[in-house]
Write a structure and sequence with these properties.
Order of helices and strands of chain A: EHEHEHHEHH
Distance between the termini of chain B: 36 Å
Shape of chain A: globular
Number of strands of chain B: 4
Number of domains of chain A: 1
CATH topology of chain A: Rossmann fold
Shape of chain B: globular
Number of strands of chain A: 4
Oligomer: heterodimer
CATH class of chain B: Alpha Beta
Radius of gyration of chain A: 14 Å
Number of helices of chain A: 6
Radius of gyration of chain B: 12 Å
Helix content of chain A: 40-55%
Number of domains of chain B: 1
Distance between the termini of chain A: 32 Å
Strand order of the largest sheet of chain B: 1-4-2-3
Structural class of chain B: alpha+beta
Helix content of chain B: 25-40%
Structural class of chain A: alpha/beta
CATH class of chain A: Alpha Beta
Strand content of chain B: 15-25%
Number of helices of chain B: 3
CATH architecture of chain A: 3-Layer(aba) Sandwich
CATH superfamily of chain B: HPr-like
Strand order of the largest sheet of chain A: 2-1-3-4
Strand content of chain A: 15-25%
Largest interface: A-B, 18 and 17 residues
Chain lengths: 137, 95
């Protein structure tokens, strides 16, 4: 395991298992150099998203000086993530971005870019570039 | 700063080709160089080129075991980049 880089990722899914699975892949491709937190499911454990849990995940990465990138899976995960971002204190909010990117590809691409010690904007750009990526060779 | 170009063609013998983990190793190594690195899979038609710094582009080349890739680099440390990436593939990604 290499040294930790200065950007952390928060993966928000309706399913705890989905978020955890994507986290597992992201950690494998970066050999554990990037802090990745999976947040999945509603407060009662059913499928859904929980703004307070997202907020806590972002805040737990607040010592990642170069910031935090948040990736979401579907629909209302965006609203929950935006609600969480609105609750952040101003100083931390400036170092947090919400990616408009596919969940799996975006998370993996962002994790690899973050592992290169790139800045937050470069990591965000790599995640969002995943939108246009064709899948079949 | 002199503009250099370097290239190499070689076959990938890793059991899983350039799939997720080997591709991630490739991208992370390519990113250590200033040169612009491109990869093409010569064993598939289409000749699409991937940016050597993009994991998603490299994995989308569909490089399986036995496929031949062409690595090209352009920039001041192009030869060093190609040598290092060739070494990674030849070493079977350190496996």
């Amino acid at each position: 395991m290499g040294p930790l880089v200065a950007i952390g990722l928060v993966l928000v899914s309706h399913s705890a298992r989905l978020a955890e699975g994507v986290r597992e892949v992201a950690e494998q491709v970066t050999q554990g150099t990037v802090r990745v937190i999976a947040v999945g499911g509603a407060e009662d454990g059913s499928l859904g998203t929980n703004a307070l849990a997202i907020l806590a995940a972002i805040e737990s990465l607040s010592d990642n000086d170069d910031g935090v990138l948040v990736l979401v899976d579907l629909g209302s995960a965006v609203l929950s993530a935006e609600t969480a971002l609105d609750q952040l204190d101003v100083e931390l909010r400036e170092r947090v971005r919400l990616a408009d990117a596919p969940f799996v590809e975006g998370a993996v691409a962002a994790a690899v870019e973050a592992s290169l010690d790139s800045g937050l904007d470069a990591v965000l750009a790599m995640a969002e570039a995943a939108r246009g990526q064709v899948k079949l060779a | 700063m002199s503009e250099q170009e370097a290239a190499a063609e070689l076959s990938v013998e890793h059991d899983h080709g350039l799939h997720l983990r080997p591709a991630a190793n490739f991208v992370r190594l390519a990113a250590r160089y200033r040169a612009d690195v491109r990869v093409a899979n010569l064993s598939r038609s289409g000749g699409r080129q991937a940016n050597g710094r993009s994991l998603l582009e490299v994995t989308a080349l569909g490089v399986d075991r036995g496929h031949t890739v062409r690595i090209t680099a352009r920039g001041e440390d192009a030869q060093e980049a190609v040598d290092a990436l060739q070494g990674l593939i030849r070493s079977n990604f350190g496996a």
